[in-house]
Design brief:
Order of helices and strands: EHEHHHHHHHHHHH
Protein name: EF-hand domain-containing protein
Keywords: Membrane, Transmembrane, Transmembrane helix
Structural class: mainly alpha
Number of helices: 12
Radius of gyration: 31 Å
Number of strands: 2
Pfam families: TMEM65
Helix content: over 70%
């Protein structure tokens, strides 16, 4: 038996936590609550993670990267097998050469798995609910574009008709055309503002594969959504007519 005195920073527990563990061999066993506290501390302070990695020896860092990469790419059930695969010479030591060999092999296997997934996914299995959501997300910005375009055209055309148009003896169509020019120029300036406003709403974009996004059904759903959105925006943009007609 030997004793290990370990100090966990106050960031993890709210105070400095020093605890003695009696160890059998060289492995320490942590409870689930202690593991959770440690994980929360690492997530809340990136510097703590950097300091821990810096204190590890190179072999332990390589083993940690292999375990993390295996869990991220192939699932948590593959961690043990991937660590064993990385230890090519079975000496319980992952050398730099072993690590480079494993990393190249893992990247190739990951890419092959991704290609097989895309080949098997022809984009026809997108549910109708997802297609409706794709149409909604695609049409949302066009509601703002259509509203601004029509509202600005009507307001600018009416103002031109009642001021400059009277002196230049312009027809109603000419004033409307000048108003449309004004709304087009101003609409370009508001283009980015509308996009940012829609992004700030935090509408969740449907998660689709690259092949699904290129499928005809998803394209058609986005096209229909944009058409409905611009139509609704243009109709809403006619609201200034109520004010203008009331004044008239």
């Amino acid at each position: 038996m030997r004793r290990m005195r370990r100090s966990v920073p106050s960031l993890i527990t709210g105070r400095t936590w020093i605890k003695d563990y009696r160890l059998a061999g060289s492995a320490a066993t942590l409870s689930q609550a202690e593991l959770l506290q440690l994980a929360q501390g690492l997530e809340s302070d990136p510097e703590l993670l950097v300091n821990i990695l810096r204190s590890l020896d190179p072999q332990s860092r390589r083993r940690l990267i292999v375990a993390g990469g295996a869990m991220e790419w192939f699932g948590k059930e593959s961690v043990v097998s991937e660590v064993q695969r990385a230890d090519a010479d079975k000496d319980r030591f992952i050398s730099p050469k072993d690590f480079d060999h494993w990393l190249g092999s893992a990247l190739r296997r990951r890419q092959k798995e991704k290609c097989l997934t895309e080949v098997n996914d022809d984009g026809t299995d997108v549910p109708c609910r997802t297609l409706v959501w794709v149409a909604f997300v695609a049409g949302l910005p066009f509601v703002g574009f259509g509203f601004l375009d029509n509202a600005l055209m009507i307001l600018a055309g009416d103002m031109i008709n009642s001021t400059v148009g009277m002196y230049l003896n312009c027809s109603v169509q000419a004033c409307a055309a000048m108003g449309n020019t004004f709304s087009g120029v101003l609409g370009m300036q508001f283009h980015g503002v509308i996009d940012k406003a829609v992004q700030n709403i935090n509408v969740k974009v449907p998660s689709l594969t690259e092949r699904q996004m290129k499928s005809g059904r998803v394209f058609f759903a986005g096209h229909i959504g944009g058409t409905i959105g611009i139509t609704m925006g243009l109709l809403l943009g006619m609201l200034p007519l109520l004010v203008i007609d009331a004044k008239g």
